[in-house]
Write a structure and sequence with these properties.
By secondary structure, this protein is mostly helical. It is 68% helix and 0% strand. It is built from 6 helices and no strands. Helix 1 runs parallel beside helix 3 and helix 3 crosses helix 6. The chain starts with a helix and ends in a 6-residue tail after the last helix.
Length: 183
Amino acid sequence: MDGLNDYRSVRVAEILDDFRTLQYYIAAAPVDPPNNDDYYTEGWAALRQCAIDGQHILNCAADVTVPYASGGEAEQTKAELRQVLLDAYSRRHEAQKIYLRQAAAQRWIEYRESVLQGQRPSNAHRRQLRACDDQLRGELARITDQAIYQELQTSDLTMGRWTAEDPTLRLVQRWVRARPQTA
């Protein structure tokens, strides 16, 4: 018994609270454009994919196999908390990725609206709209697992959270890969 189960419990609660907050924002984002002609544009397609991904990460099953640890009740609790921590941490990681992708797509919408100024797209807007699409693609490309992991780690440390047993990026990626979307 290492005496850290209270820290582990608090850590799980913090991460689950972060995940819940991210899910709220993900669910609140728009998915349908005001004009149906814009339905298949890059930004709106990205927002719809984010909504699908957000629902998936919320609904994907947790690993319900209970790890067995010798050494008594405290060691068993430790093993279970570590498993729950991986699940919560991975969900928060994916939710942060979705949230950042949504934010990029919403900036795309704002930029596109400022270009069009209430008009429908025409040849006169082509260059600016292409730049808007390129900007979105660039932003989405910069949203990597490594960047998100680092950002969340820095945020947790800044808030003074206990991070001694946080899962590695490799474990998070393995958790995500084990839960593919079925469409």
